[in-house]
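Fig. S4 source data, part A: sequence.
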Amino acid sequence: MRILLIEDEIKTIQSLRQGLEEQNWLVDTATDGETGLRLATENTYDVIVSDIVMPKISGLELCRHLRSKGMKTPFLMLSALGHTDDKVTGLEAGADDYLSKPFEFREFMARIKALARRPAEAFKPESMLKFADLEQDIDAKAVRRSGREILLTPREFALLEFFMRNPGRVLSKTEIAEKVWDVDFDTGTNVIEVYVNYLRNKVDKGFESKLIHTLFGQGYVLKTEK
């Protein structure tokens, strides 16, 4: 069983992770809502657990976003806020269960085991990605811009998909290397710059509006020109 644990209290996340791994669960963790959202949309989990009060994106916002995308993964909300209104707010956001802090680990395990037993539709990431006039069909392995077909190599296609799933967000070279190449970034290589340039020449060349932009010292971003 695989679980995503989103919690910004380091001691809590370490304690829960240790207990879960002792129960043979595979555990992914995040200490802010933005990272948690990315992991939740990139991977498949049996249960997602999140605190409500989180840096960057709250647990409520995260849950609402996942539900709006059609994700059915069981969701357990954690919070030090134990009033009835707080619980109702969490459940209305799309959570399946709510556990008030402090709690005993055995109750926590009972709750997530119960959630994991519920039948749920597996989440399938969107297969048709669109940004401005650019379209990427993941299943058909096709890319079009303004109706014009663009031919990409498998690596270029994967790189574009990462951009398309993260529009408007600055992507560092390290993150691109880890997510697209699945390797630790070697600062002595320019492979990221090379492939971004390959992709830019195919996606932007010949079009008035440029979509792939370089932010020097930060990385790259998919956005429309202003």
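Fig. S4 source data, part B ends here. Helices lie at 10-22, 33-42, 59-68, 84-92, 105-117, 154-164, 173-181, 191-203.
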